[in-house]
Write a structure and sequence with these properties.
146 residues; alpha/beta; Rossmann fold; globular
Length: 146
């Protein structure tokens, strides 16, 4: 049984590739989807589709509409959502995506360092599982197949 896993979280490092490669090493039948990871494409998609906008507010608004549609479609089609929170970047999009997943009743795994226990306590309480590492999240996914 192949499961579709939506990977929510910052797009500035290779954590997605890490989890995908480790899942392949374990021969887990998983398909991974997630947000647009090309930052420029994500920021500019509104103008690419709708044309030049009259200011940054409108440019961001147009891009947000299209990015939110993409996220909603992929998340609705996913079986599990993993949200990674790290120390380095602001996590507004990750928090929004994890909240949406929980609202959609998607099984949800949160990955967060110990330093974020307090600020993420409500989300962790609503998620199915909260772990501290990518490896722990993979252990949870592996357990599904036992």
């Amino acid at each position: 049984m192949e499961l579709i896993v939506y990977l929510a979280g910052q797009i500035h490092d290779n954590w997605r590739e890490e989890i995908i490669n480790k899942a392949k090493e374990k021969n887990l039948p998983l398909k991974f989807v997630g947000p647009q990871t090309d930052h420029d494409r994500s920021d500019n998609i509104g103008e690419l589709v709708l044309g030049a906008q009259p200011g940054n507010y409108y440019k961001d608004d147009a891009a947000s509409d299209i990015n939110n549609l993409r996220t909603q479609v992929l998340m609705q089609k996913s079986d599990i959502v993993i949200g990674l929170f790290g120390d380095k970047y602001k996590q507004w999009n990750t928090a929004m995506d994890v909240s949406a997943a929980i609202t959609m009743n998607k099984p949800t795994i949160i990955i967060r360092p110990e330093s974020l226990i307090h600020p993420l306590k409500e989300l962790s309480n609503r998620a199915n599982v909260t772990v501290e590492t990518v490896d722990q999240a993979l252990q949870v996914l592996t357990y599904i197949y036992e």
